[in-house]
Amino acid sequence: MNAQKTIKLLSGNDMPIIGIGTWELTHQTAELVAKALELGFRMVDTSGDYGTQPGVGDGIRASKLPREQVFLTTKVEETDDTYQATREDLDELAMQYVDLMLLHRPPEHGYGRELWEGLIRARNDGLAKDIGVSNYAVNQIQALIDATGVVPAVNQIEWTPFGHDMEMLEYCQAHDIVIQAYSPLTRAERLANPVLQGIADGYDKTPSQILLRWNIQLGVVPIVKAGSPEHLAEDIDIFDFKLTDTDMEALNTMNEDYSALGSTLAYAR
Ligand SMILES: NC(=O)c1ccc[n+]([C@@H]2O[C@H](COP(=O)([O-])OP(=O)(O)OC[C@H]3O[C@@H](n4cnc5c(N)ncnc54)[C@H](OP(=O)(O)O)[C@@H]3O)[C@@H](O)[C@H]2O)c1
User: Fold this and answer.
1) Residues lining ligand 1, CB < 6 A?
2) Is residue 265 part of a domain?
3) Residue 236: exposed, middle, or buried by beta-carbon count in 10 A (0-12, 13-18, 19+)?
4) Per-residue pLDDT of the chain (269 residues; tens, 9 = 90+)
5) Burial level of 260, CB count in 10 A (0-12/13-18/19+)?
6) Residue 11 belongs to a domain with what CATH number?
């Protein structure tokens, strides 16, 4: 297993089992994206509101990898005309298509049927190979499916041992929806946790590597952000060990609905 191993989406398309995020990576974006691809990462996550789309597009082109070997994800906002915003994202990326277009979050009211229909049209027109959602609760995903018959390929949500929801995982697995874990390192807030550090010591690995490995063994796809090549190299060096069932369970039981971004997990409604 390595970072180029893939998981099947409902469409039959393949998505790498780990990717890099680019939120706040507004300096040297292209260089770091190219470096990540050189190290072996094959998936890059951005968004229309990150300010990193031009650098992400440039970094992918600078890598000289064939476009089809890189899985590119971006996002449109719940306040957007999602079809038009998809076109604008592609312009900023200077790309013909993205592999995955996500609706960044549900709208303030309702579950976003029209927003989703705009993305279905974008997919049908070849602007995105797959479409998905982010920060969606189970009932909101189900409402989208009931209204349109189109199942999101992915729900991208905050997901760590400190904050996750196994009922969400069960629901997604039952519907062939892949969970992408954002802020998988707790934005570095909880890396010094002693239980986590103890588990890491047992494998001669770092807390970051344990958090990423936990995701992968759950079948959840982590999107990790690292602004330094050293961190990138550490974050991809997770394929030479396996967490025991006991350690997986110990990590599962650390759940306290913790969010590094807000007071609660956005999807826990
Ligand atoms: N859909 C959404 O609503 C949403 C929300 C949040 C995030 N995301 C996506 O998910 C991505 C990842 O989440 P995130 O950026 O919030 O946080 P994260 O990946 O949990 O944490 C990033 C932090 O961890 C540090 N780090 C990385 N590797 C490390 C290592 N090996 N050892 C120690 N520290 C390390 C980074 O430091 P350096 O930068 O100094 O290396 C940075 O401070 C985002 O970039 C974005 O693409 C999506």
Assistant:
1) 21-23, 45, 104, 134-135, 156, 182-188, 191, 206, 208, 223-228, 231, 234-235
2) no
3) buried
4) 899 999 999 999 999 999 999 999 999 999 999 999 999 999 999 999 999 999 999 999 999 999 999 999 999 999 999 999 999 999 999 999 999 999 999 999 999 999 999 999 999 999 999 999 999 999 999 999 999 999 999 999 999 999 999 999 999 999 999 999 999 999 999 999 999 999 999 999 999 999 999 999 999 999 999 999 999 999 999 999 999 999 999 999 999 999 999 888 999 85
5) middle
6) 3.20.20.100
In a domain, 263, yes or no: no
Cβ(32)–Cβ(48) below 8 Å: no
> How many domains in the chain?
1
> For residue 96, how many C-alpha atoms fall within 13 Å in the half-sphere facing its CB?
3
Ligand 1 centroid – CA 39 distance (Å): 17
* C-alpha of residue 224 to centroid of ligand 1, in Å: 5
Please give the model's pTM, rounded to 2 decimal places: 0.98
Provide the residue range defining the domain that includes 134: 6-252
